[in-house]
TrEMBL record:
Protein name: Vanillyl-alcohol oxidase
Keywords, comma-separated and alphabetical: FAD, Flavoprotein, Oxidoreductase
Record-annotated FAD-binding oxidoreductase/transferase type 4 C-terminal domain positions: 464-567
Organism annotation: Jaapia argillacea MUCL 33604
Disordered: annotated span: 1-23
Domain spans labelled FAD linked oxidase N-terminal: 109-251
InterPro entries associated with the record: Cytok_DH_C_sf (IPR016170), FAD-bd_oxidored_4_C (IPR004113), FAD-bd_PCMH-like_sf (IPR036318), FAD-bd_PCMH_sub1 (IPR016167), FAD-bd_PCMH_sub2 (IPR016169), FAD-linked_Oxase-like_C (IPR016164), Oxid_FAD_bind_N (IPR006094), Vanillyl_alc_oxidase_C-sub2 (IPR016171)
Domain of life (superkingdom): Eukaryota
Amino acid sequence: MAPFVSTAVPEGRPKKIDRPPWHGSCLGQHETSPWFEESLRLAKESPRKIPIPPGHTAQSLEVALRDLAEILGQQWVKFNDVPLIDGDYHAVPLSHDSYHILDPDDLVPSAVCWPADTEDVVKTVKWANKWKVPIWPISVGRNLGYGGSAPRVRGSLVLDLGRRMDRILSVDTENAVCLIEPGVQYVTLYEHLQEIGVGNDLWVDVPDLPGGSVMGNALERGVGYTPYGDHWAHHIGLEVVTPTGEVIRTGMGSMEGSECWQLFPYGYGPHQDGIFSQSNYGIVTKMGMELLPNPGGVRVFMAAFPRREDLYQAIEIIRPLMIKKIIGNVPMFRLGLQDASLYKTRDDFELDERGIVKPDSLKKVIEELKTGEWVFYAVVYGPDEITQAKYEYVKKQLGQINGTKFYQREDVPPEHYLHNYAHYTTGIPTWRELDRMKWVPNASHMFFAPVSANSGQDAERQSNMCKKRMEEYGFNCLDTFFIGTRAMHHVISFMYNRKDAEERTRALACIRALIDDCAKLGIGEYRTHLALQDQVAKTYNWNDGAIMKFNEKIKDALDPNGILQPGRSGIWPKEYRGKGFELWGGERRSASTESEAEISFGSLA
Ligand SMILES: Cc1cc2nc3c(=O)[nH]c(=O)nc-3n(C[C@H](O)[C@H](O)[C@H](O)COP(=O)(O)OP(=O)(O)OC[C@H]3O[C@@H](n4cnc5c(N)ncnc54)[C@H](O)[C@@H]3O)c2cc1C
């Protein structure tokens, strides 16, 4: 086989990425897909009653939703009375959070609607203000591990923007930027670039799984693997519908006739974009996104470290390589066990009585897979001479750690993750990460994702602390550090069997304990699941929680009726504050109320 340098993907860039025939959001229509039969997993059977949002009765909600159906068209509004089918990554349900950590019937909408364009979004927002119904926009709804498509307030209306607003509005090939709508997925943007003949020159930064929305992920401040791996940092210009129904464009887009909306991010005066990420201050309907120009060569490699203690020294060595941009991407430092979970299930290991992998058993698997206690995946970009020199330099630095082994693609077997990594780092989508979802039966995961300094000390204390706490609760700590220039996303996959209520409760209690452990040391999460957002928001407590007071002032000013995503990121509108909507842990929540139990609306059509 030819060496893998220069293109890193001599196998070429596929025009299309294979996926199952059913790859989209679903509201109870899974049965129509023959493929789906295999993976159909019922969380709650039909018939279900429609959940009612706060301040409504069954009757008032029904009148309101029928009004919306008049506005958007009968076929674009549906009640959520379908069975709760968990589906899987490809067939993602709109009825509930398929990776539920609470009761599956807890965080559920009353209905879903499908706006066609910005105008429809404006109409829906005005409708929500008129009827005081909470609304929850999603782009694609694959926010799995953080709440999926589910709303925070039970009975909200979900706006599934992605179904009909999925256009790639422009690709400026000279300036390497595009303008997209919410439903554009990484995989569809990639395929579009291939189709218009620029796929080799302009790359999309893809995260682990490419079925997410480019916009939704950026709004969540998600991460990928190329130099553009900080997705929010590489958006450029927004169109936003405010909670009272005005349409604004940010940056240069706020000037009539400007040609620089996707070229210069700031415009004039205050820069508003930041308040629309991880917030409930607006519905984004268009977003500019930078595309990565092909850097003219790539060298992908893996370093494997033999001891758990090597984490400290390795991160100390990597920090200057990041700050000086010798390593050009967002590299990944991953626990050997987390790496092994791509190839093995938990039951392939010998476990202790708590279900924790025994160290000797892990050692055997590490030897079999020829990895290490920690593995480091990274890439250097540029022409061969440059990547060769950079690679030698990185090897020399990391080689100071005794026993470190280095691998390039030609050194590993075809099923090795390093080949997938070469795809990620050159913007080619892959589904490989789904292999991890076999770790336990009915696997779901939540991510516990604290921010770490790029320092051996911080990484080591976080990793050891999380391992100890998780093992105490009977969970294997599967950590990965996504390394930025000066800080890391320390992302721990919290794998649990969603069918096992006891295991779910234990997982939630454990993650709550971790949030508290971390907060005591001044460690905060970059993103969290819906059920944990109040707790995490509260840990950002400098100066008596000044930041939340500021957030609430903005919320009250922009959203006087409190209709847009109440509770997102722990920000509650004034009508909701202190009325028992927050989730702090230990609540006994019953999924449905008595009034809900009585109603069933029937069809809107
Ligand atoms: C195995 C696995 C691996 C994963 N790996 C990664 C990874 O590498 N990197 C990563 O970042 N994530 C990862 N995730 C998490 C998640 O799947 C992705 O982040 C995904 O892109 C988020 O879903 P989405 O893009 O469909 O966004 P959505 O679910 O549509 O939205 C995400 C959030 O943003 C809000 N929102 C969406 N659109 C709008 C809008 N237009 N206006 C206002 N608010 C909006 C929604 O209310 C929601 O809260 C992984 C998940 C799994 C299961």
